[in-house]
Amino acid sequence: MADPELEAIRQRRMQELMAQHGMGNQQNSEQQNSQEEAKREADERRQMMLSQILSSEARERLARIALVKPEKARAVEDVILRAAQMGQIVEKVSEERLITLLEQINTQTTKQTKVTMVHLKLDQFEPN
């Protein structure tokens, strides 16, 4: 007698857990969707601000840079947006000004390249 009752309790508990898990997934996906939407809106605002600050030539150059080195383009965008927020930019940033900013960032973020040479003796290997 106890076995069917125990089995019924187990089944009810399993259904409750599955219902809770299903609700959790739905809440997680809703939360994830809202986070993605917020990120998309922030990117749109960022692009709108950049389009107001940069000249068309500077925007084109920055877009080409972003294709090759997205992290560098993002760093330049950050510098430009910060300067605009602080009131340091009073007119549209030209391509020449963008190039000087890029050069400044390049000098600040140069990486040291280290080359290690490994010498192998060919006489250690026997031909097949």
Concise summary:
Pfam families: dsDNA_bind. Residues 25-35 have a biased composition (Low complexity). With 128 residues, the protein is mainly alpha-helical.
CATH homologous superfamily placement of the largest domain: PDCD5, DNA-binding domain
- Low-confidence segments, given as residue ranges, are none
Span from first to last CA? 76 Å
Indicate the overall shape: flat
Q: What CATH first level of the largest domain would be assigned?
A: Mainly Alpha
Number of helices: 4
Percent of sequence in beta strands: under 5%
Count of spatially separate domains: 2
User: Biggest sheet, open or closed, and with what strands and sense?
Assistant: none
The gyration radius over C-alpha positions equals: 29 Å
How many DSSP-defined strands?
A: 0
| Topology-level CATH name of the largest domain | Helicase, Ruva Protein, domain 3
Structural class: mainly alpha
How would you name the oligomeric state of the polypeptide chains in this document?
single chain
The whole-number mean of residue pLDDT values reads 83
Q: Helix fraction?
A: over 70%
Order of helices and strands: HHHH
The CATH architecture name of the largest domain reads Orthogonal Bundle
Biased composition (Low complexity): 25-35
Protein name: DNA-binding protein
Family: Belongs to the PDCD5 family.
Biased composition (Basic and acidic residues): 36-46
